[in-house]
């Protein structure tokens, strides 16, 4: 127990050293990225896999594990890259400026999320929607566009839903596969039934009646 306590004391003392703060923040950023990615992806993958994917239980669990690992790994790598580049730029220029954040994130995004795959695609679309809202609010704050007299959210909601259902009905191939699956379940599977079992209890019959 003595050596372990001494090691813990040494580790805690190291964590308090201001000179290592930037490097330690990069390491903790990697840790937080990995944990957060797993927390976000695991429940989502679990629900989507069991709702919409076929296959054995083992195949489904493998798919969930792979998706969780990919999301966790990518987010950890991105945070590590971003914070490392931020620390390097700040050290080189002696101060932190807004462009540092943009440049570091651009490089991290290119290196970590540049591959076009389902996981990265979902993350980018998630961020894109929030960026559009954020830039709209920023434009109002800076005075580039006038403050709306009424809340524009109802109009945005109407246009978003109108557009996505139009795309689903007439240009389905342009939508992400998981969104296609969700909308098929909601808007097409709800038009098919044979008896009370697949009208209220199940979405689709599994027998051969």
UniProtKB/TrEMBL annotation:
<protein>
    <submittedName>
        <fullName>PXMP4 protein</fullName>
    </submittedName>
</protein>
<dbReference type="Pfam" id="PF02466">
    <property type="entry name" value="Tim17"/>
</dbReference>
<dbReference type="InterPro" id="IPR019531">
    <property type="entry name" value="Pmp4"/>
</dbReference>
<dbReference type="GO" id="GO:0005778">
    <property type="term" value="C:peroxisomal membrane"/>
</dbReference>
């Amino acid at each position: 127990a003595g050596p372990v306590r001494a090691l813990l004391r040494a580790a805690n003392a190291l964590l308090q050293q201001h000179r290592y703060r930037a490097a330690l923040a990069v390491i903790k950023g990697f840790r937080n990225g990995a944990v957060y990615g797993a927390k976000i992806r695991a429940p989502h993958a679990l629900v989507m896999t069991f709702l919409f994917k076929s296959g054995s239980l083992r195949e489904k669990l493998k798919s969930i594990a792979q998706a969780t690992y990919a999301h966790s790994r990518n987010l950890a790598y991105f945070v590590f890259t971003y914070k490392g580049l931020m620390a390097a730029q700040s050290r080189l220029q002696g101060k932190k400026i807004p462009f540092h954040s943009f440049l570091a994130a651009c490089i991290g995004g290119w290196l970590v999320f540049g591959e076009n795959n389902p996981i990265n695609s979902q993350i980018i679309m998630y961020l894109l929607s929030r960026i559009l809202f954020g830039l709209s609010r920023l434009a109002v704050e800076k005075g580039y566009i006038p403050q709306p007299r009424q809340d524009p959210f109802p109009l945005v909601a109407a246009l978003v839903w109108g557009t996505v259902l139009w795309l689903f009905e007439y240009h389905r191939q342009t939508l992400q596969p998981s969104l296609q699956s969700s909308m098929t379940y909601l808007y097409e599977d709800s038009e098919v039934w044979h008896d009370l079992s697949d009208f209220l209890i199940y979405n689709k019959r599994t027998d051969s009646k």
